[in-house]
Specification:
Blueprint: E1 2-7, H1 14-28, E2 33-39, H2 41-44, E3 53-57, H3 62-79, E4 84-87, E5 100-103, H4 112-120, H5 124-143, E6 146-149, H6 152-162, E7 167-168, H7 175-178, H8 187-195, E8 200-204, H9 214-227, E9 233-237, H10 253-261, E10 268-270, H11 279-283, E11 288-291, H12 300-307, E12 312-315, H13 318-324, E13 328-331, H14 336-347, H15 350-363, H16 369-386
Parallel strand pairs: 1-2, 1-4, 2-3, 4-5, 5-6, 6-7, 8-9, 8-11, 9-10, 11-12, 12-13
Helix pairs in contact: 1-16, 9-10, 9-14
């Protein structure tokens, strides 16, 4: 019997939430395993009652969380007599009382594009804060016994950054779980989707942030309008380009201004945040999935889009090529012109779109949350065997 302690206090949006929601039920179904999960109270309700899983709820602020983890979590780990710690939020414990696996899944710390972007936006405070967090993230990789990245491309980037071997284990996907919820979309969202009927619909699933490169996508819209003359185009966003409508400190006002300046407000449909369990309904409404992100570690929506039968147009990142392979068309990450061209190519060629969706069905076999969990537990059990018997009691 192994007791795994998971620190998921950093899971608050995007891929972090997807990860915890997906992995914990698989862990609960694993024989000879006990699990304790530290999480925020708002996340606890997503799990219900799971066999052999205990939850510890805490809500330190983002500023307090690092110190809370360093000072309080070791006491909790000892109290629960855990055998292995899984730190799921980019930062490790400096002195973990048990062997520690660190999940590193934030590429902004190693992205020169992100730092340049912040300076161009005069976001000096965020630039400095990111540098400080990058120092802690880098030190965390040294503190952990093993660091796991969600893709080989990002693992290679971390190896160059730290000089330490990094293990890559792909994140997974479960089509049945993804499409299980049949709760209708909000009336407002359904109305917006109805208004988009008859248009060629692009979908981008993300809350607003800088590294997802919304502006390159927005600049492609007038170019696309010219290329698809006479054919209406709609860009569906699962966020709103307004202050206070997105998690984090990213400011969407510049993107909203760009929409107005380019005269493409009629082409942009801001659906707002969609509950994850209902996202499959939005994918089914689209014709193409597009992502212009200039840095990534895995990109769950790419797998979700492929599973939904959507052809993909993605920025030319090593991570995107690793995840999609031949199931996507790629463009230079800051080229609105090439992005518009790739979309127009698919819009005018059902045969090309069909080849991508056929390739996607093959790629999907590589992504399984069950497989991910099994590989993670194999790593954890190996660390447990190597640890001194007294480690958890020290």
């Amino acid at each position: 019997m192994m007791h795994l302690f998971i620190n998921s206090l950093a899971a608050s949006a995007g891929g972090g939430l997807t990860y915890i929601r997906s992995v914990v039920p698989h862990l609960a179904a694993t024989p000879d395993l006990r699990v304790t999960v530290a999480l925020s109270p708002g996340l606890r309700q997503d799990f219900g009652d799971l066999a052999n899983v205990a939850f510890v709820e805490s809500h330190p602020s983002s500023l307090q969380r690092f110190w809370y983890e360093q000072l309080e979590l070791p006491r909790l780990i000892r109290r629960f007599q855990a055998d292995v710690l899984l730190s799921a939020g980019n930062f490790a414990l400096r002195n973990s009382p048990v062997p520690q696996i660190l999940l590193s899944r934030n590429s902004i710390y190693t992205s020169s594009d992100f730092y340049r972007d912040l300076l161009a936006r005069h976001e000096y405070k965020t630039w400095l804060d990111t540098h400080v967090r990058a120092v802690l993230a880098k030190r965390s990789i040294h503190w952990a016994d093993v660091t796991v990245a969600p893709s080989e491309a990002f693992a290679a980037e971390l190896r160059r950054w730290t000089g330490i071997n990094i293990v890559s284990i792909h994140h997974g996907f479960d089509l049945e779980a993804f499409t299980r919820d049949s709760t209708p979309l909000r009336t407002e969202v359904k109305q917006q989707l109805n208004l988009a009927e008859g248009s060629f619909k692009l979908l981008f699933v993300s809350h607003y942030n800088y590294y997802r490169n919304f502006e390159t996508l927005i600049r492609a819209l007038p170019l696309l309008r010219r290329r698809l003359s006479g054919r209406p185009v709609k860009l569906l966003l699962t966020c709103k380009l307004a202050a206070g409508e997105n998690p984090g400190a990213y400011r969407p006002e510049s993107a909203a201004t760009l929409v107005e300046e380019l005269g493409v407000a009629d082409m942009v449909t801001e659906l707002g945040a969609i509950p994850y369990a209902q996202l499959h309904q939005v994918y089914r409404q689209a014709d193409i999935y597009v992502t212009p992100a200039y840095t990534e570690t895995f990109a769950h929506p790419l797998v979700e889009a492929m599973a939904s039968g959507l052809p993909v147009v993605a920025s030319d990142l090593a991570v995107h090529r690793e995840i999609c392979g031949d199931a996507a068309l790629y463009f230079p990450r800051f080229s609105s012109e090439d992005l518009a061209l790739r979309i127009a190519d698919l819009a005018s060629s059902p045969e090309a779109a069909g080849r991508l969706t056929t390739a996607a069905s093959v790629r999907l076999a590589d992504f399984s949350w069950k497989k991910h969990t099994e590989e993670l537990l194999t790593l954890a059990r190996s660390l447990q065997r190597q640890a001194k018997p007294s480690a958890a009691a020290d």
